[in-house]
Design goal:
Low-confidence stretches: none
Number of strands: 10
CATH superfamily of the largest domain: Bactericidal permeability-increasing protein, domain 2
Distance between the termini: 34 Å
Strand content: 35-45%
Number of helices: 4
Radius of gyration: 22 Å
Shape: elongated
Largest sheet: 6 strands, antiparallel
Length: 184
């Protein structure tokens, strides 16, 4: 069990290779939704780690590991979030703010009402590994709802979102540091 949403199944993909200075263990790890072990829609590709002998432990993660993680969390609904009235009021997001950007909202709502944001991933996020970074492609939508005085909600508009980001990880002063770049 990783958390409430996902579990990991790991097993040896080949017999361990035991050499004088080291042991080589090839594990195949699959992440799946908690309580719902299903076959992955992805195929695992084998890969090799460059020979080095200056560290005690080497770990390598493949695209397959990240793809199954993304699939498991998407299936479990982890990428669907509702930002409620309390959070929006902290950032002072209301119909007046949207009305200054989108004239149709100003016509609809003369009185400033609080809003609620529903963020949803519409497809499984795609994670691709490169030499020095990895990219994450996310397709989703954001629905903006107005919270009326009687506590009911009414949809104002929906935005479709497609984002592509690159993430680079480096180690500085024995700390893992990341940099995020929004490509589009």
């Amino acid at each position: 069990q990783i958390d409430d949403l996902a579990e990991v199944d790991y097993s040896l993909s080949s017999l361990p290779a035991v050499f004088q200075p080291f042991i080589d263990l090839d594990l195949k790890g699959v992440i799946f939704p908690a309580g719902n072990y299903t076959d992955s829609p992805y195929m695992a590709a084998s890969f090799t780690i460059p020979d080095q002998s200056d560290s005690m432990l080497y770990l390598a993660f493949s695209e397959y590991f990240f793809q199954t993680s993304s699939f498991a969390y998407y299936t479990a609904g982890a990428f669907n979030k509702t930002i409620a009235e309390e959070t929006c009021s902290y950032f002072n997001i209301n119909t007046e703010i949207f009305g200054s950007i989108i004239p149709e909202v100003a016509k609809y709502s003369v009185t400033p009402y609080p809003v609620m944001l529903k963020l949803m991933s519409t497809e499984v996020p795609i994670i691709s590994l490169q030499q020095d970074s990895f990219t994450v492609e996310i397709q989703g939508s954001m629905e903006v709802l107005v919270v009326l005085p009687d506590s009911t909600t009414q949809s104002l508009f929906t935005l479709n979102i497609a984002a592509n980001s690159s993430i680079s990880l480096n180690i500085f002063d024995q700390k893992l540091m990341g940099s995020l770049c929004l490509n589009r």
